[in-house]
Design a protein that fits this description.
125 residues, transmembrane helix, transmembrane, membrane, 5 helices, single chain, mainly alpha
């Protein structure tokens, strides 16, 4: 039988190593999901990368909950919880409705290109 107390103690005792692994992998995997959506990759590839990214996000949220269980309520716990839930939400969105996410990404890219064009016009005039 799995002892959740032991797992939670392990999570808290190795917090620095767990966060040093989960934060960059979570961000990279979620960005890769967004890139796959933007490049219109096949749904099977989006499912695969979203699955890994959701795994990292879910583990981060569970890790933060181990701190909440013992009453540690600090800014880093909220930041990590926000990061984990945001990435988890993006990955779920990528699986459930990739077309709407692609539409949003296209609007963001268009908006950024428009801003860069304005900055270049001002810089070279």
């Amino acid at each position: 039988m799995i002892d959740l107390t032991t797992i939670a103690d392990f999570s808290r005792a190795n917090c620095l190593g767990i966060c040093a692994f989960l934060v960059p992998f979570n961000l990279l995997a979620t960005v890769q999901t967004l890139i796959f959506i933007g490049l219109n990759r096949p749904q099977s590839q989006i499912f695969l990368i979203s699955g890994f990214a959701s795994l990292y996000s879910g583990l981060m949220v569970l890790h933060v909950f181990t701190w909440f269980m013992i009453g540690v309520v600090m800014i880093p716990t909220y930041v990590l919880l926000l990061l984990g839930t945001t990435c988890l939400g993006i990955n779920i969105w990528a699986v459930l409705s990739p077309q709407s996410l692609r539409h949003i990404l296209e609007k963001i890219v268009f908006w950024v290109q428009k801003i860069i064009g304005r900055v270049q016009n001002v810089a070279f005039n």
